[in-house]
Design goal:
The chain is α+β, with helices and mostly antiparallel strands. The protein is built from 18 helices and 30 strands. It has a 7-stranded antiparallel β-sheet with strand order 2-17-16-12-11-10-9. The radius of gyration is 24 Å and the shape is globular. The protein starts with 19 loop residues before the first strand and ends with a helix. It is an enzyme of class 2 (transferase).
Amino acid sequence: MAASPLSSSSALSKPISKHHSFSLNTPQKVTFPLLPKTLQKPSSFPCNHVLHPQKSEFTTSSKNPISDFFSANKNEDGLVPPFSDDDDDKPREECGVVGIFGDPEASRLCYLALHALQHRGQEGAGIVAVNNNVLQSVTGVGLVSEVFNESKLDQLPGEMAIGHVRYSTAGSSMLKNVQPFVAGYRFGSIGVAHNGNLVNYRALRAMLEDNGSIFNTSSDTEVVLHLIAISKARPFFLRIVEACEKLEGAYSMVFVTEDKLVAVRDPHGFRPLVMGRRSNGAVVFASETCALDLIEATYEREVYPGEVLVVDKKDGVQSVCLMPHPEPKQCIFEHIYFALPNSVVFGRSVYESRHAFGEVLATEAPVDCDVVIAVPDSGVVAALGYAAKAGVPFQQGLIRSHYVGRTFIEPSQKIRDFGVKLKLSPVRGVLEGKRVVVVDDSIVRGTTSSKIVRLIKEAGAKEVHMRIASPPIIGSCYYGVDTPSSEELISNRMSVEEIREFIGCDSLAFLPFESLKKMLGSESPNFCYACFSGKYPVMPREVKVKRVGDFLDDGLNGPMDSIDGGWIQGPRDLNVEKEIDPLYQKSNI
């Protein structure tokens, strides 16, 4: 049974429906003044819309064909991992990007901006800087502070740089997939950093390999470089436009060449990308405004969905229409969990959004209680909103350790819930004998929630009432967020009452889906709710299994078939496709 916010409901249905894709018009060059103002509506960005019906949607399987590939206790290197998935049961943003043009300390500012975006990826970091028309790169596995030091930053002089932080499961073979990627081709060199996920990656890669392309990584970002290299369009930015015309899915990217910095956002605007300017005139692009704040850049506006921004010394900042864009579908989870509370994402304050989520929860799912606490850190602002609306004191009932290393040694006598206890410590003075409301941002598998409830009850809480500041998650994300397959999502398998019994709390309530949309008001249609509804704005034709990480990212020495285990092909009836879509023969790769 799939979960509804407050009661059980029938299982999620997955209808086959018709959708449209959008073809590329001749790019329209528009110069935008960079004024310090709040985000304009994406619909204000000029594009000529031409719709062409293309291939029909089809449902995808949630069966994970490689679940047996992993042992319960060892990672790909045969080592005991520092934390199991159960102890870190959250969706993960897979990366963050930065681009800086026109500052003599571009790489150092890039380093600081990446530090501000560290929450978007902790497993790898890299910077590419341009000096004397040469692209120089430093990448590494680990946190930003672990990858870079003074001597490495000294290797990256120049006034232009791009940077990237990446999330993935750990592995010795991950380094070659750490971005930014740099490639040389007949017209020079180009570097790229990408936040998002391409849902047609495999088809594009197969097409390119059939034409002789050779790949060094298993990252979908490398496909973009190949598409740019084979393009015959002029000038350079038109090669990017032509390449992006072939992409489906989510991408917020920054490119660097010998003399240009380019920022691109996909037509749906799934992933965030903002633009700012420092007092010396340097232009900055970043995934979140918190990165701008740290390097003292003023937030100016978002990169619009479907927009290419080209920055060079000759023409300054130029805006180009990438392609006609449909209704924006911005990721709602940026406001629920991913972004920092002090960021402005999609033109909205993340702090204000989360506070409002908590207020709605208190109104729609009240309960008699003595204290409101949060699961730190992501549940804190919603808990403050709940407490304020309910008129109940908010207290710090769980203390999060910020000093847990990437590895630890567990005693031979097993400690129950060891991973959770290492990170969260209950405050008995706050919890003992109390009726406690615990606010968290989401429940994914439910395993961490059950351990937290047990932790709080062992500290003497009289009652534990879980309040979740998002609707139930019933679908995987294919647009740049690492989530489990649908069969692992507890809300896709159980009713709210069944989940309550599983995690052991006295009551459980989610943020109602309709209340979430009502709270967003007129902006509600601009968000993607696929993880809550199962309705995907861009239906994936090929689905990369989540949490696979880099277990096959070892150079892909074998043929393309060697990575089949890491992919699920959605069920397809080719006869039906041909009947529904007269363009099938032309559009099928």
